[in-house]
Amino acid sequence: MIKYFSRMVLLVLGLMFVGYAANQAIDPSIKGRQEKPEHSVEDLEATSTGTKEPADNMESLGVLSALPIPKSSKAVTPAGQPPLPIVSTPITSVHVVQSSYCWDTLGCADYVGGRAMLNGEPPTVIDPGDRISIKPNYEPLPAKVYVSEIRENNVYLPVDLSDGVFEAPKVKGLYYYLYEATWLTEDGKYTLNQTSAVFAVEIM
């Protein structure tokens, strides 16, 4: 009796095993689990060793690229100096030389004033009565801008500006000018930055 019962148990277990094996062969969901994963060990190893193209690996592994960092809207000064104004006539640009300033982390620098600042550099030749435009090359714009004509013995005469433009003399000769700009705090009580520049024009 015991031998008969044991044989029956073995027969039932054998049938169960055969049925399980058949299901493995025909069940797509079970078969799909045995397929190679989307990103194999070889892919990951190739990524770490750099044997595949980085861009392809980033995309295949689902890595998002970094978003671009927005640039600051504030203009920056040229390295090592405050911003020089853009001085020009309708047909030519006027050479400008840096003068005294107090500017951000650059600190303060005091230059020899007046005509000596040009250090013998040749003036820009323009026509009598040309409109000379002066534009600060920096944002935000300065709160105050002054232009003066430098006469003999460093006598300074104010020049009237209209929207950053003034009229050149009509008499032939050599003329020197000083540009000064000041930036203030939002409440207008304190000075943030100051810079100045000189330029010369020759009326032919």
Can you characterise this structure?
With 204 residues, the protein is an alpha+beta fold. The chain has two domains: 2-60, no CATH class; 86-203, Immunoglobulin-like (Sandwich). The protein has four helices and ten strands. The strands form two sheets. Strands 2, 3, 4, 6, 7, 9 and 10 form a seven-stranded mixed β-sheet that branches. The protein is globular. Residues 1-5 and 24-76 have low confidence and may be disordered.
What's the average pLDDT?
Answer: 74
State the domain count.
2
What is the general shape? globular
Order of helices and strands: HHHHEEEEEEEEEE
Corresponding CATH architecture of the largest domain? Sandwich
Radius of gyration: 40 Å
CATH level 1 class label of the largest domain: Mainly Beta
Record field, number of beta strands = 10
Task: Report the major sheet.
Answer: 7 strands, mixed
Task: Provide the structure class.
Answer: alpha+beta
List the helices and strands and how they pair.
Layout: H1 2-26, H2 28-33, H3 41-49, H4 54-60, E1 86-88, E2 97-103, E3 107-109, E4 124-126, E5 131-135, E6 144-150, E7 156-158, E8 165-167, E9 173-184, E10 191-203
For the structure shown, list the relevant keywords:
4 helices; globular; alpha+beta; 2 domains; Immunoglobulin-like; three-stranded antiparallel sheet; 204 residues; seven-stranded mixed sheet; disordered N terminus; 23% helix
